User: What shape does this take?
Amino acid sequence: MLRSLSLVLTAGLLGCSPAPDPADNAPWQTPFPDQYSSWESTDEDTERHDELERRPEMVVLWAGSSFAKDYNTPRGHRYAVSDVTHTLRTGTPPKGDEKGYSASCWTCKTPDAPRMMAELGEQAFAATQFTAQGMEMANTIGCADCHEPGSDALHLARPHAIHAMEKVHLPFDQQTPAMQGAQTCGQCHVTYYFQPEAHNRVNIPWIFGSTADEIERYYDTRRFYEWLHPISRTPMLKARHPDFETWSRSPHAKAGATCIDCHMPKRDNAEGHQYTDHNVGHALDNFDQTCAGCHDSKGALSAALAQNKAAIEAARDEVESLLVKAHYEAKAAWDAGAQWAQMDSPIMDIRHAQWRWDFAVASHGIHAHNPGEGLALLATARQQANMARMKLKLLNEQLGVTDIAYPDLSSKAAAQKAVGMDMARFEEEKAAFIRDEVAPRWPAAAMRGAPH
Assistant: This one.
């Protein structure tokens, strides 16, 4: 905001108009009114569910990371700035020697993030604090994220996506329009991590490929981990919505059906002209426009999707239960005096099992996009979790452990208490930050849809 005001004043003194803001979505409204109106309607997508309340096991699996504090299903694109501002995961401004969270947390929430990367440099932006960039984040996810300024031409706005497509030898300018559309969505609907040796810039780990196995190999080769689990002392990995990866190996991809075909159907306006709906909704809600070209019956497709979802839910239930037990069985061994040489093998099994579990369940809609891969990942995760538990059972017997205490998982609050989280403090500090700093000073996008 201060930077923008400075540009306006400077331009006024020089007798010229300020340069257009490349992150502003408004310039698309006049040339593309139907697309713009449908994009604005993402305001109506307000439904959100607390996934930690639904699955308290995830609090234990993510103990020691910010994901154990807060994890909700996403709302519409227009709420992205507000949701990342308000989530407990992004915390509050750091105090004293605290590290705080990187500005990279803004990367896929607003076109202002690539604007600031262009101004500061990719690594310099990532090196700043998340909260220090808040006053710059005025525009919600929209036209500027996917299109060239004022045009319908697609582009990759984010440097990490350009780097990733180079790694897999699929440069954007050499792709068909359909693949470009998929890549444009995939610049954010993809897994990533913050690269510590590059000031926490966003990096997509595709050096060996984009499967869970290949990404795991990359992380293991680098001896990389995001946090050390406080219960089992496992060096943990986190998958983040690997939608592009799982789609790219799916029957949909083989048939040439992309994100846009299924989630942004073609519509006719009042004058009979066709446009692409930018509401980005559920494919089944628009069966005739999105699915009917390949599927004969909405009922049959709905039944198949429900069956896929039930199978994946049952598999993840089992894996989550096994992993919770494995983390606490590792704790029992450590408490009984186990050494790293004894624990290395079982905790690596935990690491690899949880990685595959996360890769499957963090992929939005995998029961529709690629259920075969999701079930295969969960089957391997189950095997690895069972292997970890078998090794820990033998070790605990050797160490004389006869009783293992497992946590209360009756609710999110019970699970958070079990892993030692001071949720009252986190919530009080966040509420004060929103009240005193965000509400009065940050752009309006930060308070969109926030409770009053």
Notes: The first strand starts at residue 193 and ends at 195. The chain has 21 helices and six strands. The first helix runs from residue 2 to 13. The radius of gyration is 23 Å.
